[in-house]
Amino acid sequence: MTDRGPLDAVSPLDGRYARYTEPLSEYASEAALMCARVRVEVEYLLALSDLDATPLALDADARTDLRSLYESFDADDADVVKRLETEGYDGHAATNHDVKAVEYFVRMALPDEDEQGPWVHFGLTSEDVNNLAHRLLVKPAVETVLVPAIRELRDALAAAAREHRDVPMLARTHGQPATPTTYGKELAVYASRLGRALGRLEAATDGLSGKLAGASGTYAAHHAACPDVDWRAFAERFVESLGLEHAPLSTQVNPCDDLAAVFDALRGVNNVLRDLDLDMWLYISDRYLGQEAVEGETGSSTMPHKVNPIDFENSEGNLTKANADLTF
C-alpha cells in the first residue's frame, strides 16, 4: 500500500483526530522542523556575514535567495533534506544526521559553496540550531492555534453564563445536595478559570528563550576563530532577532525551563477543561442537562435508548493523555 490516509496512521493524532490537529501540522511536523532549522542556519549565516571579523560576503541577491529557502520551503525541499540524511543527494553522501542534512541543504544554495560553505553552522552544535528551531515552532503554535481556540471557548462559556444566569440549579458539595445556585454561575466559574489559565499560558509563551553558545556553552570555537568578536553580545542580538529571549548561560543544551513553564501552563488549561468535562458528565447523569439524539446516530450497540456523553468523555480522556505527555 503506497497511498496512505488517516485510517492508516499509527497515531490517532494523525488518524481519528486528524481534522482537529491539522492546523498544528505547520508547526509540529518533521517538515516544519526542517524548515525552522533552515531558517536558523540561514539567519545565522547572514548575521555572520554582517561581522567585520568574517570574510563572508553575501550581496542582496544572495540574501534574498537564502531567505527563500525557508520562506518558500515545500514538500520537495523536505524530500531533499531527508534524502541528504538517509541516502545522499547531489554528490553529498548520506549524513545519517538530521541537522547536518540541513547544513548541506543550505550550503548547496550558496553562490560559492567551496568558499562560503564552511561558514554555514560555523562554531555551532546541533542543539544551538534545534533549541531555537523548536521554539520558533512552539511559539506560533501556541499563539496562532491554541490561544485563539482557548479564547473562543472561554468566550462561549462567558456568553452561556450570561444567557443562563437565572436558570436555578441545586449545587452539590461533597457530592451531596447543598444550596441553590444557577447554571450560569457555574459556567461563569469555568469561564473565569479558563481566562486565568489562558493568561498564564500567554505569559509563559512570551518567556520562551534560546541559546547560541556552541558545544558546551562557552563560545569556545567562536572565540578561537574570531577572538575580537563579542560572541555573547552577538548571540544575544541574534536570538532576540528571532523573537525569543536570550539564555546567556547554558551547557551544550538549553535547560528548557522555559518550555517546562509553557507545558505546565498548558496542563493548567487542560485541567480546567477536564474539570468542565467531569461536571458536564455529572450534570447529564443527574438529569440537570439533557442530550438531543441525532437521527441515525447510535448511542449504544445494544441499548438504543441511550445517548452517551461521548464528546465530554473523549475530551476528558484526551486531556488526561495530553497532560501525561506534557510531563514526560
Can you walk through the features of this model?
This protein is mainly alpha-helical. It folds into two domains: 24-122, Fumarase/aspartase (N-terminal domain) (Fumarase C, Chain B, domain 1, Orthogonal Bundle), CATH 1.10.275.10; 128-291 and 306-326, Fumarase/aspartase (Central domain) (Fumarase C, Chain A, domain 2). It contains 13 helices and four strands. It has helices spanning 18-21, 25-28, 30-49, 60-71, 75-86, 98-107, 113-116, 126-163, 183-206, 220-225, 231-241, 257-285, 310-326; strands at 168-173, 176-182, 209-210, 245-246. The protein has a two-stranded antiparallel sheet with strand order 1-2. A hairpin with a 2-residue loop joins strand 1 and strand 2. The two termini are 34 Å apart. The model has no long low-confidence stretch (mean pLDDT 94).
How is the CATH topology of the largest domain named? Fumarase C, Chain A, domain 2
Q: How is the largest sheet built, in terms of strand order?
A: 1-2
Number of domains: 2
Beta content: 5-15%
What is the CATH architecture descriptor of the largest domain?
Answer: Up-down Bundle
- Describe the oligomeric state of these chains in a short phrase: single chain
Q: Assign the CATH superfamily of the largest domain.
A: Fumarase/aspartase (Central domain)
Radius of gyration, taken over Cα atoms and rounded to an integer in Å? 26 Å
Mean pLDDT: 94
Order of helices and strands: HHHHHHHHEEHEHHEHH
The count of DSSP E runs of length 2 or more, i.e. the number of strands, is: 4
Tell me the overall shape.
elongated
How far apart are the termini? 34 Å
Number of helices: 13
